[in-house]
Fold:
Amino acid sequence: MNFVFFSPHFPENGADFCRGLKKAGATLLGIGDAHYDALPAVLKQSLDEYYRISDMEEYEQTFRAIGHFIHKWGRIDRFESLNEHWLELEAGIRTDFNIFGTKLDYVQNLKRKSRMRAFFRKSGVDIIPQRKCSDRAGALTFIRRVGYPVVVKPDSGSGASMTYKISNQRELNDFLASKPADVAFVMEQFIDGLVVTYDGLANRDGEVVLASTTHYDQSVMDVVNTDSHMSYVCMPTIDPRIEDAGRKILKAFDVRERFFHIELFQTRRDKRIIALEVNMRPPGAWITDAINYSYDVDVYQLWADMVVKDAAAERAKGKYFTAYASRKDHIRYRHDHQAVLAAHGDVIIRHQPIEKIFSKAMGNFAYQMRSKNLADLREAVRYIHAEAPAESAIVHADKLPQDAQP
Structure:
């Protein structure tokens, strides 16, 4: 298999996917804007050839790179980035070169929230009342139907960017006055609930070969808009209602040979499951590694073996809870990094800064923790997120000397 990986250097786990592809036996060809010398060693060892372009947003440069690869290596069998930002570019290249996978005639169904709804209806999973928000009259008509509060978000977008809760007429006026004219928005009824996910791999026949679920502790919209920290837990077992909804949605979208990341609302009052959106890519925010830790698998290799060899491993069973807790630089925390490690080092398996482009949602620094006891992880998250008293010195808690911590 000749596999072209677009942007293998970013995000950083692209190198893990490339490692898996090489081990599975693919001829691996990379396209990116980083200089070859700047690539991590594991990525250099995986790539059979790397083609540098100056602007990854310029389609013609990628088109020429594919032409070069075909001339040298023969037919290209797969073209992927595993990144939502490049969905349309991927679909264009696949269409122009007749490469397996999603083409231009289908990709908007995976990008636009308004287009996803037809597939949610087909699946039979509950959906949120929604309409396109193009003008004041349409917005007011919708609000008269569902009432305040409502949520507005870009029709095409991810990560809660430009997503807002609107609770009254003043906030609606502010949104309409400030929203970018070139961005299409949708308006949805506000749901009092939290996001749960159905994540995993579907093989070439559309069969689920790996599945997991992650439960968020906060609204990602609120995390982004209030610049707060966040936490989630990847669970070792999946609520049957989440599994049922996820499988119905996968069938409606006819997902094959792909990662899937399906976001659902679970209502606080009655735990009802409601379809939110689909992302045909690996989940972000370290969730791929959370799946590895919870299920004792190598999801990067499982995906590569599925793609290259159409391999079908026995579906893994969960063994651990895996939690994520982030910190924001502007928040003063009660316990510094060394105190966190001293108190909860027995469950912490990873800690490091977050790439700036992802920090609004994921935090500036994060901890990942694993345990068979969920209570231990909940206590660690509370400890990590505990904020310093208001009267403490006005410096970031992590900058204080160890002996000066409250």
About this structure: Residues 285 and 358 are 8 Å apart (CA to CA). Residues 393-406 have pLDDT under 50 and may be disordered. The first strand starts at residue 2 and ends at 6.
